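Consider today's protein:

***
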Amino acid sequence: MFNQILDFPQMVNQKILNAKLNSAVSNFDSQDGIRCYVKTIYQIAALVVLLAMEFAIISGAMDYFQNSDASALGKVGSVLTFLLLMYSAFPIASVIRSRGDSLGGAHNGMVEFVFKDFVLTNIKIVGEVIAITGLFVAFVSTLSFVFDTSLLNTSGGGEAMLDSVRSLYALPGAAVAELTSMVHLDYISDQLSAFAAYKLDTAQNLGNGWNFGNLGMVANSYINVAIGLAVLYVNVAIYTFLYNIVAALVNFIPRLAVPLSISNK
């Protein structure tokens, strides 16, 4: 009777689930299995970001057209910016999915997958989403300059939705700052931080006439996209460099031979 009581959970599991769950867990492959699940997670994340952005943009547009005192020309231009903002969600979702698909490919081992491929993928996702968002902000600024009025410019929050992985995007700069502070090279750390935070003056909505000042702000909004991509590639290069140093050090330590001879007397 005691043995039957102990075997009761296994008996119920076999009768109800037919041991499929246990078989899946027992046969889980950390190499192939993790790639499949990670790919699926990024696909779901891309769909969630797309739907959330579209909902936020539609909600913002409804509030704008119902409560705005904009002119007829401004509302016509806002229809164009609404279509632009609606479309912006698709390339953002595509970036998340494509990067997730590439992460779901082959990798050399779990350590490299977690500490290199996963981190670099999320750095690229955040950087590219920031660049895409900046590009559509530049488009809105261009239309606002052409129509010479403030237009609808509601953010879908695609960049804000990546707050959970934003710390990975800042990881290369934080690592360099920590290393330079250890060797008292704070100047290098300050310069890298200033470069990462550098932005030209822009205005998303312009409405005080066609002049060179407003035209310059529109041009700056496009230049900021290039600056954002430059920061992205610098972050990728820094993290790859630091990872290679740590990986080389980890591989070198086990090969050390201590030239000591100990004899028992």
